[in-house]
């Protein structure tokens, strides 16, 4: 499992873009993790799935509510990562109104989740291999803090916890 001091895996996530611009076409666009984190501070949180109850009602809204506080604490970007395809993450971004606050990044084949060692097997529940619920503060591609939830819990990966760590 990834730990504090490790570099994020050099995988590629996908982001759905609603408008063309800044080298991005409409639709899914690749986000190479190593390049996208270089020289930046990222508040990254991952969750089992888009449109799921805890993720939609608590996890994403918490980061949206505190987006300005994260910026004030020196965080360049907030990332939400989930094992879903870019089209689903794009639809969820529209539903949650994340534009300009939280980047909704798809880990469609779970390559990022597998590389971090933070997977969650929900095959018995019809969801397949997913990401565990966690948050981390990343500076220049390296993990500075890591908050991994116990199965079925939502206690340490919330926005308030990561924000306090970003301010420390």
TrEMBL record:
Molecular-function GO term, any one: thioredoxin peroxidase activity
Family annotation (CDD domains): PRX5_like
A single GO cellular-component term on record: cytoplasm
Highest taxon in the source lineage: Bacteria
EC number from the UniProt entry: 1.11.1.27
SUPFAM superfamilies: Thioredoxin-like (SSF52833)
Domain Thioredoxin per the UniProt entry, residue ranges: 2-168
GO biological process, one term: cellular response to oxidative stress
Job of this protein: Thiol-specific peroxidase that catalyzes the reduction of hydrogen peroxide and organic hydroperoxides to water and alcohols, respectively. Plays a role in cell protection against oxidative stress by detoxifying peroxides.
Name of this chain's protein: Glutathione-dependent peroxiredoxin
């Amino acid at each position: 499992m990834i730990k504090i001091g490790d570099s994020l895996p050099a995988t590629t996530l996908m982001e759905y873009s609603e408008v063309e611009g800044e080298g991005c076409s409409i639709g899914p666009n690749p986000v190479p993790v190593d390049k996208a984190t270089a020289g930046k501070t990222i508040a990254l949180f991952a969750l089992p799935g888009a449109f799921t109850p805890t993720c939609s009602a608590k996890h994403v809204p918490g980061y949206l509510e505190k987006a300005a506080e994260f910026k004030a604490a020196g965080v360049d970007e907030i990332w939400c990562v989930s094992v879903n395809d870019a089209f689903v993450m794009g639809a969820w971004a529209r539903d949650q109104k994340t534009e300009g606050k939280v980047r909704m990044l798809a880990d469609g084949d779970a390559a990022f989740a597998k590389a971090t060692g933070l997977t969650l097997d929900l095959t018995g529940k019809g969801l397949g291999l997913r990401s565990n619920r966690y948050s981390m503060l990343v500076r220049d591609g390296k993990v500075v803090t890591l908050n991994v939830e116990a199965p079925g819990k939502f206690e340490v990966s919330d926005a308030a916890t990561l924000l306090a760590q970003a301010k420390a």
